[in-house]
Amino acid sequence: MSAQLQDAPLSLAPMELADLDAVILVERAAYPYPWTRGNFRDCLDSGYRCWVARQGGALVGYSILMAAAGEGHVLNCCVAPEWQGRGHGRTLMLDLMDAARHHGVECLFLEVRPSNLQALGLYAGLGFETVGLRRNYYPADQGREDAIIMRFCL
Ligand SMILES: CC(C)(COP(=O)(O)OP(=O)(O)OC[C@H]1O[C@@H](n2cnc3c(N)ncnc32)[C@H](O)[C@@H]1OP(=O)(O)O)[C@@H](O)C(=O)NCCC(=O)NCCS
């Protein structure tokens, strides 16, 4: 990654169908069990709030919020591995939380793997609290992994 690219400002914009090739590449690089292209297309078709982050023209991350009836769910928040640890995850989440507020969301929920220390650190740092556990929620290399349910009241 060139120094010029690293120093470029981060910009946020709505995700478009044309972004899906780049989104899928990031998704596959970042998750052991990635979403499919169809999952992203469904989110766009459903009118969920899907946004991307770009730096110097490169798609570096995205977030997806489903909001209805005063409740919000963070369906995805992801930063490309080579762009992690630079504050982009926090920027994407703060932007999503702001959007949730504007959608009239009172409580925002998300699920996260107990083994995902980066995401747990990100969410706890933003003020999310653990409110429950879904047993055997995620596929894992050996069997299934639980999901920690976190909540942030806006
Ligand atoms: C989780 C994720 C979005 C964080 O994005 P990021 O851009 O690396 O995070 P940031 O640089 O904004 O860091 C924000 C906070 O995350 C936590 N964090 C980031 N990297 C971490 C690491 N390697 N270990 C522990 N905590 C970490 C810290 O609390 C950090 O706050 P700090 O900088 O004040 O210490 C990113 O790791 C990612 O995309 N992972 C793969 C996809 C994923 O698991 N998404 C979440 C699904 S629930």
| Helical percentage | 25-40%
CATH fold annotation: Aminopeptidase
Question: Uncertain runs with pLDDT below 50, 5 residues or more?
Answer: none
Strand content: 35-45%
Biggest sheet, spatial arrangement of strands: 1-2-3-4-5-7-6
Number of strand elements: 7
The CATH homologous superfamily is called Gcn5-related N-acetyltransferase (GNAT)
Query: How much is the average pLDDT?
Result: 96
Q: For the CA atoms, what is the radius of gyration? A: 15 Å
- CATH architecture descriptor name: 3-Layer(aba) Sandwich
> What's the end-to-end separation, in Å?
37 Å
Structural class of the secondary elements? alpha+beta
Question: What is the count of structural domains?
Answer: 1
Q: Mind describing the biggest β-sheet?
A: 7 strands, mixed
In CATH's first tier, which class applies? Alpha Beta
- Which compounds are bound in this model? coenzyme A
Question: What is the approximate shape?
Answer: globular
